[in-house]
Amino acid sequence: MRFVIVTGMSGAGKSTVLNVLEDADYFCVDNLPVMLIPKFAEIAHDDKLGVSNVAIGVDIRSGEALGEMSLCLEELKKNNFNFEILFLDANEPELVKRYKETRRTHPLSKDGRIRDGIEKERKKIEFLKQRADYIIDTSGLLTRELKAETEKIFVTGDPYNNMIITVMSFGYKYGIPRDSDLVFDVRFLPNPYYVPELKPMTGNDAPVQEMVTGVPEYDAFMEKLTDMVTFLLPLYKQEGKNQLVVCIGCTGGKHRSVTVANAFYEQMLKTPYSVRIFHRDITKDRIVKGE
User: Fold this and answer.
1) Which of 3, 122, 170, 196 has the greatest number of CB atoms lying within 10 Å of its CB?
2) DSSP string of the chain?
3) Cβ neighbours for 51, distance < 8 A, ≥ 6 positions apart
4) Is the confidence at residue 286, as pLDDT, over 70?
5) pTM value > 0.70
6) pLDDT of residue 290
7) What does the alpha-carbon distance between residue 125 and residue 206 come to, in Å, rounded to a whole number?
């Protein structure tokens, strides 16, 4: 039996994860009082119940009782009940955005600012993050991507290394992505924008790719880029980083950056981490003076 404790920041996606697990035939209970968790574990492990896997949701709604969670976990270990902790996190701007979109009030900021509630919650729940077996940073993740990560861990059993790499192409004339961790400029490569038949195409089209990758500098650049990021990934993970956004930019974000981002994405798929790709400006076609 897998006994999963789903926890984390309010608004980070706990309900989505519990729904995924329920669809995968997990017996799910949300917001179970902390003092009842050991008893629930005992019942769940009873063969008469006929339950294969169990997931419970625990978060700040437990109030002051959340502070007893450490004792609860120790009791589970003492009684030889194996458990796994999944911690869902997201950065402050993303959490604020989600609360504003849903027009919900943060549990700890009923009489104040959402940011104040988030700050209080992060301090109260940090001890669970430190004990977590899996951490998913849902900042910028689509619902389907969070579902896929959850299934990878608890349904298909694929390896998971607590790191999600986002490869993003962008155009400098639209600004550097605010959530970028590493930014690489590929404007040294030949620009298909100036070739009339290639201008309406994108880096997803073969003729554009052939032009961009056809210069001697391209292979050397890709080799050095891949080598450096591959070297950095375990170091970032060691420092507790759970999501890395690697941005690759050209002037308009349509030709060169898309081509390189696609190739770099394929290289990152060879790492043991989860990888996704996003072309932020590929559909934009604004002409800027002097381009």
Assistant:
1) 170
2) -EEEEEEESTTSSHHHHHHHHHHTTEEEEES--GGGHHHHHHHHT-GGG--SEEEEE--GGGGGGGGGHHHHHHHHHHTT---EEEEEE--HHHHHHHHHHHTPPPTT-TTS-HHHHHHHHHHHHHHHHHH-SEEEE-TT--HHHHHHHHHHHHTS-----S-EEEEEEEEGGG---TT-SEEEE-TTS--GGGSTTTTT--TTSHHHHHHHHTSHHHHHHHHHHHHHHHHHHHHHHHTT--EEEEEEEESSSSSHHHHHHHHHHHHHTTSSSEEEEEETTTT--PPPTT-
3) 1, 27, 44
4) no
5) yes
6) 43
7) 49
For the chain, domains (ranges, CATH) are 2-154 (3.40.50.300), 164-279 (no CATH)
Residues 6+ apart with CB under 8 A from 234: none
84-89 vs 53-57, strand pairing mode: unpaired
- What angle is formed at CA 255 by the lines to CA 254 and CA 257, rounded to 5 degrees? 85
Residue type, 233: L
